[in-house]
Amino acid sequence: MCDVTTTGESMKFTIDTKENKLYLEELAQELLKFAVHFPSPGGSAYYLHDDGSPWVEKTLDNYETCRMIHSYCIGSFLGFPNSLELVAAGLKSLNGEMEDKVNGGWYTSIYADGTGVPNKLCYAHAFVILAASSALLAGMDGARELFDRAVAVFDKYYWDEEEGLSRDTWNDDFTVLDPYRGINSNMHTVEAFLAAADVTGEEKYRVRAGRIINHVVKWAEGNNWRLPEHYTSDWVPDLECNRDKPDDQFKPYGATPGHGIEWARLITQWALSTYPEQPEKYGPYVEAAEKLFNRAVKDGWNVDGARGIVYTTDWNGTPVVHDRMQWTLAEGINTSAVLYRVTGKTEYAASYHDFLKYLEEEVRDHQYGNWIHQLDQHNHKLETVWPGKPDIYHALQSMLIPYCDPSVSVAVAVHNKTTK
Length: 420
Hints:
By secondary structure, this protein is mostly helical. It has helices at 18-34, 62-77, 83-94, 122-137, 143-158, 183-200, 204-221, 257-274, 279-300, 326-343, 346-363, 393-398, 410-418; strands spanning 47-48, 54-55, 60-61, 109-110, 120-121, 159-160, 165-166, 169-170, 181-182, 230-231, 312-313, 319-321, 324-325, 374-375.
């Protein structure tokens, strides 16, 4: 990492400078402006083209709808115009076309004719909890009822109380559970549970998040801090999963540095919120978070002749898929800032600086707004995994988390800052 300087253009990328704060505020508003055309007639989120226009031929995705609800709840706290109207549109979907009124729960996606895409994913249901939590915080009508339905479905089908982990995939009527178990869905379960705890004050959700985190830390430590992503029904790591499809959108082969980085932030948030003012208890978790982050950065950042974080590596840390995904950079910005706040180590401030500089020079779309969602090894635009720009969720959060309380979920942190 380069040394952090505080002169000229570098000020814009240097944490705790006036220039950096203004830069992040500018980009947050740019992102919110980009995605205002997301609602379909039924409220579900359209997938978006490069210029933010709706890609009407694609399926309407549950998780994208939830991410837009969450993002524009935050937008309302920031004073972005018409945010709550956009939130209301998304909630119309979750209470309408995206909800399976016959079998319960929510569709993962729906086709243009309104029928559901087969199978129901934990990933999507975790995002319903996140969206409902943010909507509840924003004071939206019906948000508490939506939240209660979401956690009831999650408790019945996805949360495994005995294991302290979330199951992954059911068939449409919740009669057949797929044997696959995954860490990605558990990561977003942690995110949703922490938000639920922060918004409702129901600490059982924070306790559950901690149970998941304890498994994750153990698995990561046992694998040189390269976290296995895929597991059997007995929670045995499946290290060869999708070797023949290494760039899978949600189940890629090997280690995913971006997830190691994202887990590091969530572990830190959970530890600080669970053990406030008790460094002897939260300290070991922060140390684990540092190891996850540092392993991911060492394996993934600037390792193949160009800037960027590679999508995946093998179990020795050698890159497999060299593409750069925008969400990975967003999490790098988030976690480097959080670890700097918590530890005071300047190496994390240097990482933050470098990530933002890369964002400005390679990833930010200066013509249309938002960030280019996928770049190849040479930082040229690529659309094999993420064509277009489906949402603003990761990017928007990364423009806010660096100046938020690291122990609090981002929507609550922004709400608390802007409503004082």
